[in-house]
């Protein structure tokens, strides 16, 4: 994911934050990548995680990969806007990173676990306007198929992810928008439309 936005939205005021959440295997990264390629002035908040890097992931672009000890130290330093533990691994969102982007008038897109998104809803992001998008395939059967196709985890971890996903789906009514990702191009168009519409609304 690139953080090289166009300058077209610089200087027009404070930016927005778009939180994309949903179960593991929903295709959030794929949708976000393509939306960012289409919309100028949109930057990606690179979350921190203590989990191992997958073969297809790029450090510093998909996640900032740190040790458990380094993650705990950042918590103690107050460096995270929110942080959660998911299947024994830690995930966190950098407060200073987001505030810097927004202050420059850029819009930030965040890929956050459902639990973390709920935390942000509860504590807020101060002066930053936040929209929450829940992205998911239309069935747990499709979700299971995608998790298995990744071929990155053993059966036990896949089953744990599916159990967590079932609980996460219950949180769907808490979010502002729902995007069904059964067809990638359709999901990309819908998320891009949500971002574009909100940009227009706040500029009126």
CATH superfamily of the domain at 7-45 and 104-203: P-loop containing nucleotide triphosphate hydrolases
In angstroms, what is the radius of gyration? 16 Å
Helical segment count: 7
Which CATH architecture of the domain at 7-45 and 104-203 would you pick?
Answer: 3-Layer(aba) Sandwich
Low-confidence stretches: 4-12
Q: Give, in spatial order, the strands making up the sheet with the most strands.
A: 2-7-1-8-9
CATH class of the domain at 7-45 and 104-203: Alpha Beta
Total strands: the figure is 9
Order of helices and strands: EHEEEHEEHEHEHHEH
Strand residue content = 15-25%
Shape: globular
Largest sheet properties: 5 strands, parallel
Mean pLDDT: 89
N→C terminal distance: 30 Å
Give an account of the 3D structure.
With 204 residues, this protein is of the alpha/beta class. It has a domain at 7-45 and 104-203: P-loop containing nucleotide triphosphate hydrolases (Rossmann fold, 3-Layer(aba) Sandwich). It contains seven helices and nine strands. α1 crosses α7 and α5 (140-150) runs antiparallel to α6. The longest helix has 20 residues, at 184-203. It is globular. The model is unreliable at 4-12 (pLDDT under 50).
Write a compact overview of the structure shown:
The chain is 42% helix and 22% strand. It has 7 helices and 9 strands.
Brief descriptors of the model:
7 helices; 204 residues; 42% helix; Rossmann fold; five-stranded parallel sheet; globular; alpha/beta; single chain; four-stranded mixed sheet
């Amino acid at each position: 994911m690139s953080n090289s936005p166009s300058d077209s939205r610089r200087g027009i005021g404070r930016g927005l934050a778009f939180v994309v959440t949903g179960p593991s295997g929903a295709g959030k990264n794929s949708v976000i990548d393509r939306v960012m390629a289409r919309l100028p002035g949109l930057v990606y908040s690179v979350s921190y995680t203590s989990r191992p890097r997958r073969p297809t992931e790029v450090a510093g672009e998909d996640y900032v990969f740190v040790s458990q000890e380094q993650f705990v130290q950042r918590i103690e330093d107050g460096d995270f806007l929110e942080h959660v533990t998911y299947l024994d691994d830690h995930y966190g969102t950098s407060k200073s990173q987001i505030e810097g982007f927004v202050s420059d008038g850029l819009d930030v897109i965040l890929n956050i676990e459902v639990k973390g998104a709920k935390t942000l809803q509860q504590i807020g992001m101060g002066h930053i306007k936040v929209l929450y998008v829940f992205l998911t395939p239309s069935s747990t059967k499709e979700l299971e198929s995608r998790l298995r196709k990744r071929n990155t985890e053993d059966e036990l971890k896949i089953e744990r992810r599916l159990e967590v996903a079932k609980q996460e789906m219950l949180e769907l009514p808490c979010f502002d928008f729902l995007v069904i990702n059964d067809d990638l191009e359709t999901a990309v168009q819908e998320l891009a439309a949500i971002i574009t519409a909100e940009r227009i609304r706040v500029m009126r």
